[in-house]
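Supplementary Text 2. Reproducibility record for the structural model of the 312-residue chain.

All settings were left at their defaults, and a single model was retained for analysis rather than an ensemble. We include the record here because the model underlies the residue-level annotations in Supplementary Table 4.
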Amino acid sequence: MARIYVEGWSPDYGAPLAPDETLAPAEGSVDDTVETTTWRPLDGHDDGVDSVVFVDGVRRIDAHLTLDDPQVGPVSGLCGTFAVGAAVWDRTVPRTEVAAERVERWAILSGGRDEIFPPVDLEPGYATMTTTDPDPSAPLRALHSAMRSAEGNLATAMASDTFVIADGPLNELGPRPAVGYIKSHRVRYLSPERNAVVAALARGQRTPLFTIGGYARYSWYVRLAVVAQGHSWSGIVRCEAPNSLPTDQVVTLADRTAAMLPVVASEPHVDPRAPQNLVPIAGLERALRHRMGDPGLVVRRLREAVAERKAS
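Retained model, structure tokens:
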């Protein structure tokens, strides 16, 4: 009989299991034979790479906007900030340093509007963009998309000469040694027999590779930790790599992630998304939030800018 569990993640961060059928692959599109036809847990292997770069981004809604158009009616928007950067783990020391930080601020209006947000006394200031989608949630999606694009560009640039782990799905799929790291599970890609292999993984083990039709990348599951009072998928993450890489190179990357990621998995008493939110990524997120500036000061500057525009 199936048991009920209470997830260890704080509800503020969503859930590690969050079904979304709109993301499900087409029937029969998963190929789970690209590495082997014999599915069983595979041990990770640390090949001694000297440096690992973790790339991530954080975003924040600074203020909601309403454009008052007497003819069209209220038009929604937002002012938002995001920051992206890298945590460089030098395994020869060992030491982790934050690098390549970048902050962007955007005023985003829905409905294809061409109004420009006034200058704001902040560094960096706000650029203006619009989305043609009239949905009130469209500006937030546009901000998230801009952040993901910046993350992808940074991961691609840094993967030219080092091993990169990007938090979230890969946005850039060039033939570089970059791995996407997905903490939550929104789709069941595998058959029940293959899901049983995922559930049977021990710490530091992975599944064989599989591919998803129309989704140009390899995927595999890794267990970071055996979670106390956890269910069979607790402590499981999904990784992915571009299918433009040779299969044997992806096998090396998969073995490396299975061996290395459990070493930097977080602990429940430290991180509300343990063990999936890796320690270097959590440290990077704290640094990036600091770089975005104090939210109260940002709101004051926004109100001052709008007041000055109205007075003029």
